[in-house]
Amino acid sequence: MIVNFILLNQNTNLYTKKVQDLSFIRQMRLIYGSGGNEECPELVWGKKVSCEFRKRVVQISKRLECDPNHLMTAMALETGGKFDPKIKNSKGYVGLIQFGDDAVTDINQNFFIYKGKITKSYLTSLSAEDQLYYVEYFLHRKKGKLKTLADFYLAILLPYDVGKGNEKNHVVFDSSLTLNYYPNGKVKKDLTWVRNKGYKANPTFFKEEGEDGKSDGKTYVWEVEQAINEWYKKGKIHTNTTSDCTCVGKDCSCGKDCIDLSNKVTWISQFNKSERKNGVVKTDGCWRTSQKLLINSGLRKEAGMRTNLIQVIIENTNAKTVTPDNTKAQQGVNYIDSELEKGNPVLVGTHYKFGYEGNTDNTTDHYIVIIGRGCENDKRFFRFYEVGTSYPEKGQSLKNKLYLEDNFLLKGTGQHNTSHKYIVSQVRKN
What we know:
Layout: H1 22-32, H2 51-64, H3 68-79, H4 101-111, H5 120-124, H6 128-139, H7 149-157, E1 171-174, H8 191-201, E2 218-220, H9 221-236, E3 259-260, H10 285-296, E4 309-311, E5 313-315, E6 322-324, H11 326-341, E7 346-351, E8 366-376, E9 379-385, H12 392-395, E10 401-404, E11 410-413, E12 422-428
Antiparallel strand pairs: 1-2, 3-8, 4-12, 5-6, 7-8, 7-12, 8-9, 9-10, 10-11, 11-12
Helix pairs in contact: 2-6, 3-7, 3-9, 7-9
């Protein structure tokens, strides 16, 4: 299918109808409330994707205030049920929701304001799980307006029409529209152009009797709704069950339970516009943003302050070696364990270079947030969020791990810069 993935200036007064759909409410309760299993959600098309993919779909849908089954269905339609992040159509649209040039430009302008810039090639280099972050970025502007399956798909097909999902005879595409031109004779690629060109480019919506796209025609909301509902019905036979899920683990074989707080802790980049002061990225941004992650997860505003910390290592005055305090290191690990078991993330300082004097201990170079615990090759590790990157798949990577050494030091690397060999230098209490 060829999708016109055009983003236009959105009218802030665009009419949006609130839908009080009891079946939708029941579904949300099932997934998010009692009886739901966030670690192993049952979703249409769920057998076609990994457990981690399903889990992220639920997390994204919570933030977008939508039904995760709608997100799964839209991606199924766009990928022909393959959920292949590398899929590309004849017009150059790529990925899970067929990102186009305008979509990439929009994401760069709205989310990658400092360091990061993405391309379609970059998107296709990602795993399906990691590409989901960019799906969320694209849909974020329609948060709270994606209550019906038709509106959800319109957010991908033609975002301008979100809110028209219940207007069955609203015209989405119309090839008979007269195009507008600039004074120099070039056609304006405006909303009229999108509606005109979108008709023949999307044969999936030819639902009227005898409609073949050879002559002028129109695509109505009811046709879009019919097409997306067909994919929803197809997806039901591919619904996963909890028995299909292998990501739920209790005993990690390291004497501790697995813990994952990614459902609770929302990652933010320190380079986001919200994290700047007077438009400038501050040098202490990694700590300020890391602390915001704690507060946003429900911890008190004093959490992660320097007034209540466990100092684990000190850089020596020769700026070539560090001296560990093994007793403090053990205290730090015990504290991290106890907080994770309470469902709380923990802010820690890390050392990875010598000679930096930006912090009062003359040791800590960077701050990160520990959000999970696991076991790998009989070695316990702590998973962390890295705020020092513009790229969400690097900041939230499952490979961001600190491994527990025999002397209770925590060492590891993050995916945004694998040359940074982190050693936890201090543990800041909540």
